[in-house]
Write a structure and sequence with these properties.
Blueprint (H helix, E strand, L loop, with lengths): L3 H13 L12 E6 L5 E3 L2 H8 L4 E7 L2 E6 L3 E5 L4 E7 L8 E7 L3 E7 L5 E5 L2 H5 L13 H9 L5 H6 L9 H11 L12 H20 L36 E5 L2 E5 L8
Parallel strand pairs: 2-9
Antiparallel strand pairs: 1-7, 3-4, 4-5, 5-9, 6-8, 7-8, 10-11
Helix pairs in contact: 1-7, 4-7, 6-7
Length: 273
């Protein structure tokens, strides 16, 4: 579930403190306990612990939905997938039931990777771009312009909703923020990407950036047990609001399964052309 705003919130908490934990920027890893070996995409658990130990956290960053810890020699990449979360707590505290990796720090703290569904992954690598090479542009960066979005959309003949979820097209969008951005832009999720005019692409560009920034400002959306601490869910216009009145026009919000994902939209504000 964690999308760009939720991951950005976790990044800021690791860097500056927050979400109930202390900052870890500048700390040095003193060891690692892998409680479920398949959490590691690479390297092996033994190599991971040996390489991680002694490396300092030089910076904490994000690329799409990946957390990126810049270390002394390597990059530690973390993808939360469906149910992953990170905590910073005391190294001596009892692990929680779904903690898959405990990364020990030299100041008596640890970073705990908790993942109920076991889909999340960690990479420790000297070549982070090899893992991240498939990702599209960052939607909040200056080089992501309405013209750039229009070009990416019209170069493909796909339904809008699945296309926007494709991380190789735009990095960081997921189900929540795609629904909300399409509503703001007045675009139906089944609309063909190739049919969008420049003005429609500009409206979608503005919608994407607006919902992502509001999501970050509100520390993400907490809609179930997966992610904690956000309140963007209190500002949803269509997502999870099937049968409720559209906040723009009053028509009932509809739900449809598109690309095996639940999609929410207003049939009046987002006509299917």
């Amino acid at each position: 579930m964690p999308e760009l705003p939720e991951v950005e919130t976790i990044v800021r908490a690791l860097r500056d403190g927050g979400r109930g934990g202390a900052p870890v920027l500048g700390c040095t890893f003193s060891g690692a306990e892998m409680r479920w070996a398949r959490t590691l995409a690479e390297p092996s658990p033994a190599a991971f612990a040996a390489r991680l130990t002694g490396q300092r956290i030089e910076a904490v960053d994000r690329r799409a939905k990946f957390l990126w810890l810049h270390l002394t020699h390597d990059a530690l990449l973390i993808h939360l997938r469906m149910s992953g979360d990170l905590r910073v707590d005391a190294a001596a505290a009892p692990p929680e039931p779904h903690d898959r990796a405990l990364l020990l720090l030299d100041n008596g703290l640890r970073i705990a990777f908790n993942d109920t569904r076991k889909f999340g992954r960690l990479w420790l690598t000297a070549e982070p771009q090899r893992v991240l090479a498939h990702l599209g542009p960052e939607p909040l960066n200056d080089d992501f312009t309405p013209a750039a979005l229009h070009q990416r959309l019209t170069a493909r003949r796909r339904q809008l909703k699945p296309l926007l979820l494709d991380q190789s097209v735009i990095a960081g969008l997921g189900n929540i923020y795609t629904d909300e951005a399409l509503h703001r832009a007045g675009l139906h999720p089944l609309r063909s990407s190739q049919s969008l005019s420049m003005d429609e692409a500009a409206a979608l560009w503005a919608g994407i950036r607006a919902v992502l920034q509001e999501g970050i400002d509100r520390n993400g959306a907490s809609i179930d047990w997966v992610y904690r601490g956000g309140d963007f869910q209190n500002s949803f216009r269509v997502h999870l609001r099937a049968g409720q009145p559209c906040l723009a026009c009053g028509a009932p919000v509809e739900r449809a399964v598109i690309g095996q994902r639940s999609s929410y939209f207003c049939p009046h504000c987002q006509p299917q052309e």
